[in-house]
Specification:
The complex is a heterodimer of chains A (362) and B (253). Chain A is mainly alpha-helical and 362 residues long. Chain A has helices at 10-35, 39-53, 71-78, 80-98, 106-131, 136-165, 172-204, 246-276, 280-290, 294-303, 313-361; strands at 57-61, 64-67, 220-223, 226-229. Chain B is flat, with a radius of gyration of 23 Å. Classes of the chains: A mainly alpha (362), B mainly alpha (253).
Chain lengths: 362, 253
């Protein structure tokens, strides 16, 4: 899956490099917030873990075996920022030391394998954990789905990069079906292994699983045969944050999560439907009909999301499909968050009312 | 530096290439690969010249050809992919040995093969003549974020430790009669991976505490500043500038 040099042309490689550098810069700041000065040793050791676990072979049977890619696992275990950093460092070292993946393709590789997998996996994971009832089974299911979809998502991003700057003229439909098809299978293996591994860690040290923070059972005391919430003072928190600090941090992380989720779903809705409706046979037919024009037309098609929207009649359907997807997601998000906001406001109001008298009675 | 970690790709030596400061080598390799990638694929002779340039560097570095060729095996997956290209690509077809191949696909396969191989060969030469520690120092000199370099250095320093930990767990599994044969055994392997994560994380915390107790406050002290003289820079950049000349010729001819 590591792209070599010369597979994606120079300008697109450079653009992907800029994207990767930006994402790494953001992750460096984010990881410092997640881990503060422990960042270097902890992220380094987790990167070493990812590197080692990629060598752990899982036999599929009949002599073949697969291994973990680790993006989703890193995101769930140590958080998205640290996850991006760890996988990027692994890729960097693989490119510089082991010549695995080209140096100029490093940006492409980091964008597809480090950023896409971790961000998609983490957004899905947090979303599912919020939606489903609490419990260990939820964690396992959420990490299964997150890992399952993170791998094809990375294949989709790679196909997009290929569409813009591929150096070979294999038709997009073929590349997309081959890449996404194969990676759906890989994603299945990745999902099973990730879910089992997360389950194993949660069973022993649930406090280490970043994605499961805030899901810990509250400490209850049995007072006169009744279960009572233990006082909050014993909650171990970061030593340097005063008591009021946690709420803005939580709000901020929720906001970033919300934005990443929105962006991901927009990208998925916009671009995936853009290509999903591009029936491979149709594309091939167009290619054979137009003969030599094929290459030029492909360029027109791929430039269209970036340049103005006025393109030939062929791409109009797909483009409008993609646009419709984006608009649909936008409408859904607005409606959904409106309902969610209203419900939450009412519930917090009720809770506040309910909490006050009980406190006075105790 | 006998006690330092040495990776398997490194080949000890005292050639002029070994003696160059690491960041000049890194910059040279990167520039070379960029030049190679931006060469038009129709200029086949240009790629032969690039290969000649790399061979000259390997000769100066006294890296034997067999060593280099063996390391090139890492790109076998791409070769398999490139062989497929002429069969699946579109465009006008040409008959070779009774098979209908796509012209565009043949060009694409050539493009990926030539550029990929040259890139891998350049990286292998870099890794063969530069120690791991020097490589990290070089990355730092090239203004990579210090935190990123620290993470990378922790990764390479503890990579062997973690891999060893994994090996010990495998031996423990096997000495209890376990043999992974199929999907049914994934649960056991995944539990090992989970245990490995917990051990790595806890080791990271211990390492951090040990560092704090020795006065670490967020950044590592630089004890050996590597600088490069103008002569060293020009010596290192001889490779990419020669390649640039070839590339310009390839565009104009």
């Amino acid at each position: 899956m590591h792209a070599p040099d010369g597979f994606i042309n120079a300008p697109v490689s450079a653009a992907a490099g800029v994207v990767a550098a930006g994402a790494i810069a953001v992750s460096l700041r984010g990881a410092r917030r997640e881990l503060d000065e422990r960042t270097a040793p902890l992220a380094g050791l987790v990167a070493a873990f990812i590197f080692a676990v990629q060598m752990l072979n899982f036999p599929v049977g009949a002599g073949t075996s697969g291994h973990l890619l680790g993006g989703a696992l890193a995101a769930i275990l140590v958080g998205p920022y640290t996850g991006v950093l760890c996988v990027s460092v692994v890729l960097l070292m693989q490119a510089v030391l082991f010549a695995d993946g080209g140096l100029t393709a490093l940006g492409v590789n980091i964008t597809t394998m480090a950023i896409t997998t971790t961000v998609v996996a983490y957004a899905l994971f947090r979303g599912l954990v919020k939606l489903l009832p609490r419990g260990r089974r939820t964690l396992t299911a959420a990490s299964f789905v997150a890992a399952l979809l993170s791998v094809p998502a990375s294949a989709v991003v790679f196909t997009l990069l290929y569409a813009v700057g591929g150096t070979t003229d294999v038709s997009l439909g073929k590349v997309a079906t081959a890449m996404v098809g194969v990676h759906l299978l890989i994603g299945l293996g990745e999902a099973v292994i990730t879910a089992l591994t997360v389950g194993a860690v949660v069973a022993v040290r649930p406090d280490l699983v970043h994605g499961a923070r805030g899901l810990r059972q509250k400490l209850k005391l049995r007072v006169n045969g009744e279960l009572v919430d233990a006082p909050q003072a014993t909650e171990p928190g970061p030593p340097d944050t005063p008591g009021a600090a946690p709420s803005p941090v939580a709000a901020r992380s929720r906001r970033t999560l919300w934005i990443t989720g929105l962006v991901t779903s927009l990208v998925l809705a916009g671009f995936v439907s853009f290509y999903a409706s591009a029936d491979p046979d149709g594309l091939e037919k167009v290619a054979t009909d137009h003969g030599i024009d094929e290459k030029a037309e492909e360029h027109g098609l791929t430039g269209s999301p970036l340049a103005d929207y006025g393109v030939e009649d062929v791409d109009d359907d797909r483009l409008s499909g993609g646009l419709a997807g984006v608009i649909g997601v936008g409408a859904t998000v607005v409606a959904g968050s409106g309902v969610f906001w209203a419900v939450r406001r009412r519930r917090t109001g009720e809770e506040a009312e309910a909490a006050d008298p009980s406190r006075t009675s105790v | 530096m006998g006690a330092g970690p040495e990776h398997k790709l490194y080949r000890h030596g005292h050639s002029p290439v070994h003696a160059l400061p690491p960041h000049t080598k890194l910059a040279a390799v990167f520039a070379f690969v960029v030049v190679v990638v931006s060469t038009p694929r129709e200029a086949m002779w240009a790629f032969a010249l690039y290969a000649g340039l790399l061979a000259a560097v390997a000769r100066t570095a006294r890296v034997p050809a067999g060593f280099l060729l063996k390391r090139l095996l890492i790109e076998v997956p791409f070769v398999a992919f490139a062989v497929l290209l002429p069969f699946v690509a579109e465009g006008e077809r040409v008959d070779v040995l009774g098979m209908s191949l796509s012209v565009g696909g043949l060009w694409g396969a050539w493009n990926v093969l030539a550029k990929g191989t040259l890139g891998v060969a350049a990286s292998v030469l870099l890794a063969a003549t530069t120690e791991l520690r020097e490589l990290l120092l070089g990355l730092q000199r090239l203004k990579l974020p210090p935190l990123l370099v620290q993470i990378a250095s922790f990764m390479v320093r503890y990579g062997d430790v973690i891999t060893d930990e994994m090996r010990r767990m495998r031996i423990a599994r096997e000495s209890r009669g376990f043999e992974a044969r199929g999907i049914r055994h994934w649960g056991v392997l995944a539990k090992s991976a989970g245990a490995l994560f917990i051990r790595s994380y806890e080791r990271g915390e211990r390492v951090h505490l040990a560092m704090v107790s020795r006065g670490y406050a967020g950044s590592m002290p630089v004890i050996d500043e590597v600088t490069a003289s103008r002569a060293q820079w020009s010596y290192a950049l001889a490779l990419p500038s020669a390649a640039l000349v070839v590339c310009l010729l390839g565009w104009t001819l």
